[in-house]
Amino acid sequence: MVTVKAILEKKKKAFNSIEPEALVIDALTMLNSVNLSYLVVMEGSEYKGIFCERDYSRNVILKGRSSRDTPVKDVMTINLPIVQMNDTAEHCMMEMNRRKARYLLAYDGPHFKGVITIHDLLRQVLASKEAVFDQAVAQKLLDHDEEGSGKVF
Fold first, then answer.
1. How far apart (Å, rounded) are the C-alpha atoms in residues 97 and 94?
2. Segment (H or E) for 112
3. 4-147 maps to which CATH number?
4. pTM here?
5. In what order do the strands lie in the sheet with 82-84?
6. Which of 110, 115, 116, 132 has a Cα at 20 to 30 A from 85?
7. First to last CA, the chain
8. What does the pLDDT look like over 96-149, one tens digit per residue?
9. Comparing C-alpha atoms, which of 8, 9, 26 is closest to residue 17?
10. Rounded CA Rg of the chain
11. Residues paired with 3 in a beta bridge
12. Widest Cα–Cα separation across the chain
């Protein structure tokens, strides 16, 4: 069984953290530059929340706020499901489905270790389910996802 620890070890080290006091416009600029859908909101070494595209659309745009004067802390998501390092990918999938979440917070005891995304779990399915997908097609999809080119083939 693939564990949260194994999934995090396979992920490239992302530089996608931002301070809670940062402005939403700066968070959007960073989202664009790191080519990810979320930022981890950290105050020093302490996890505070997640800022994602959904937070922007629902908590800034739809509420008539300005991204130039709204701090991330006012619009970030704070109540996400938590998983531990020894939880399995299957457990993560069930948690995401049950909680209708796109992100899970990975902890090692009380210590924040990272974020598991729905895309991380999809990569696990593609990598380990040769009986479901043609291996060559699955590998092309995996290669595409790592490159972030925007083209499937």
1. 5
2. strand 111-117
3. 3.10.580.10
4. 0.79
5. 82-84, 103-108, 111-117
6. 132
7. 30
8. 999 999 999 999 999 999 999 999 998 888 877 654 445 666 666 667 665 554
9. 26
10. 16
11. 88
12. 51
How far, in whole angstroms, is CA 75 from its chain's centroid? 17
Residues listed for the chain: 153
53 vs 8, 24, 27, 76, 103, CA distance in Å?
22, 11, 10, 10, 12
Residues linked to residue 49 through DSSP beta bridges, in sequence order? 41
Burial 94-104 (b: 16+ CB within 10 A, else e): ebbeeeebbbb
Return the structure tokens found at 24. Answer: 């939403």
Q: Which two tokens stand for residue 84?
A: 């531990």
As a three-state string, the secondary structure of 58-99 is HHHHCCCCCCCCCEHHHCCECCCCEEECCCEHHHHHHHHHHH
Q: Are 51 and 39 in contact (CB under 8 A)?
A: yes
pLDDT band of residue 19 (cuts 50, 70, 90) is very high
Which residues does 99 contact at the CB level (< 8 Å), separation at least 6?
A: 81
CB atoms within 10 A of CB 88: 16
